[in-house]
Prior knowledge:
The complex is a heterodimer.
Chain A: H1 3-45, E1 69-78, E2 83-86, E3 90-93, E4 99-106, E5 113-122, E6 130-135, E7 141-143, E8 148-157, E9 167-176
Parallel strand pairs in A: 1-9
Antiparallel strand pairs in A: 1-3, 2-4, 4-8, 5-7, 5-9, 6-8
Chain B: H1 2-7, H2 9-13, H3 24-29, H4 33-61, H5 72-107, H6 115-134, H7 153-156, H8 160-188, H9 201-232, H10 246-280, H11 287-300, H12 316-344, H13 353-376, H14 378-384, H15 388-418, H16 424-450, H17 465-495, H18 510-513
Helix pairs in contact in B: 4-5, 4-6, 4-17, 5-8, 5-10, 5-15, 6-8, 8-9, 9-10, 9-11, 10-12, 10-13, 10-15, 11-12, 12-13, 13-15, 13-16, 15-16, 16-17
Amino acid sequence: MSATQGNHAAGDNRRLLVKLSIVASLMFGFGYALVPFYKQVCIALGLNSLEPVAVAGTENTQVDYARDITIEFDANAHNLPWHFRAMQNHISVHPGELTTVEYEVVNPTSATVTGQAVPSYGPQLAGQYFSKLECFCFSKQTFAPGEKRRMQVVFLIDPKLPADVHTITLSYTFFEVAGMGGKT
Amino acid sequence: MSAVLDDHGHDHGHDDHHHGYSGIMRWITTTNHKDIGTLYLWFSFTMFMVGGVMALVIRAELFTPGLQIVNPDFFNQMTTMHGLIMVFGAIMPAFVGFANWLIPMQIGAPDMAFARMNNWSFWLLPFAGALLIISFFMPGGAPGVGWTMYAPLTVQMGIGMDFTIFAIHILGMSSIMGSINIVTTVLNMRAPGMTLMKMPLFCWTWLITAYLLIASMPVLAGAVTMTLTDRHFGTSFFNAAGGGDPVLYQHIFWFFGHPEVYIIILPAFGVISQIIPAFSRKPLFGYASMVYATASIAILSFIVWAHHMYTVGMPVTGQLFFMYATTLIAVPTAAKMFNWLATMWRGSLTFETPMLFALGFLFLFAIGGFSGLVLALAAVDIQLQDTYYVVAHFHYVMVAGALFTAFAGIYFWLPKWTGRMYNETLGKVHFWLSMIFFNMIFFVQHFLGLAGMPRRIPDYPLQFETWNKISSIGAFGFGLSQLLFLYIVVKAITSGEKAADKQWEGADSLEWTHLPSPAPYHSFETPPVVK
């Protein structure tokens, strides 16, 4: 191989070296380019969003203002010396409307007592349309001697409630949770 | 051909005439492709032994249920380092060693295109290996995150993780320089008349592999650099608390990781494509289709990465795309398998050790390929993700695929490299021991995986004990068999019979037809003319 040929080959080699090094550097950048790329893909496809899912939530557009439903409240304590009453006897609501009501319990005894409230509905079929979002009946309630407390029920009536139902009675009965005493 | 041989007769006389240094400095300063090839191969074997001992620690712990030998932390470090060392320290350098030795001789070039850079690509490796091993002595020990180095665990690991990250950087630089060297050598340094489509298939597979390395290694470097800046410089690429996403790491890692699989196996395909025709005494069947199949595998390898992560919560459309793309790879791979079988069809076969290992490869790689197809199916993979079924699958393609091929290649070219023959009987014993023990270790792991045994866990329920015992016994047998390999190679180098210039009757590439055995230190300084 003559000297000129050798130089020629070395030049070719160097050019290829430079080109391939550029490719390698670009691929290093490509790794970083994947970061915004994936972010865009996730946004486009709605994947993996860290934003809270936008629920129609607080703004209830499903309220049926054409209907008025009367809700009657009843409160009983079964074999419990508590004074348990609803703070309102009855209210009128529209189906789909978020409503908050209150109950009150007084434990007049000198012992700590734990009870659990069980709801029932009249008419019975209305129960499946009665959505409680929050209720003291979801958990056991413990009362210290002489304690007096108000507790909330947050509910809405499903607009699918059959048209012939105009009045619903919500009745709670408190039962003592035997053996619990003050323990929760 | 004999005329060409005569031209090179003068090389014969000063085989051992290495201009310049002698002793250790000769190896440190060498720019000769044959020296560097030898260094790569010995480095690879050393790392193979280190990674192998780690595998034996794993198998010893898994011999019975419960925690006996190592604590879970150290067990995790063992699985991590075993993976990293075997992939980056043993298998990849082994095939770069083959490339250094063979590519210049097979295309009729005097040396690699950038001889000094070649020296540097090798000598970076021992430093990277040292960093990996030093990390064991750091507070908190070596990283126990798995070889895939998934975030967010990597962001929380001790200082050993930084050592590993820098080791990966260095290994990546070494691979990229090696690849640039190989591409340039193959494209610019071929002898007159050696057209691309006349090259031995080994050169083709390495050319394509080198492109894969250049395109994918920098992406891995990017991924570990992001991990590094997340750890120390306040970025939040993978830290969800800072707005990052750990799954992003998996996407970037596997964008490198899947091409990496083919970086390991394509050169092995090349070696097999040299050996099977030689012992069938027929030219390779479907040469052109082999080249195109290799290229298609390489291209497809960039669009299948997410099949490693079906369970991250990807949309069904995504799973379907990656599933179909993955199963598509079976087509070019099957083309290769059938071409090898067709090469042997009505050939005049003999079964020397290299051929035995090549046939072992065909048989076991097919099993690994099929279990790969099973895992490619998204619906099935969700059940098998991170079980021993996956472990069995990738050891069938990595050990029986790449390692067996490396053995085959070493037995095949040892006479050319050293001028001496290995002991054929011992070689066959080594093959059969490896074959039996390999299947003992890994075939039973399919059953363990199907039964639900998770990988990377040091303990397991009682019902898995029998298969684990068999697997562990196989592992120790396999490990000890490799000492026999070391003995065979050393014995061949020191006192083997003299090898013929064309030791294998059916071998037809330039190193066999145009060069004596052992190959002279400087070969093809005047390029041969290829018709």
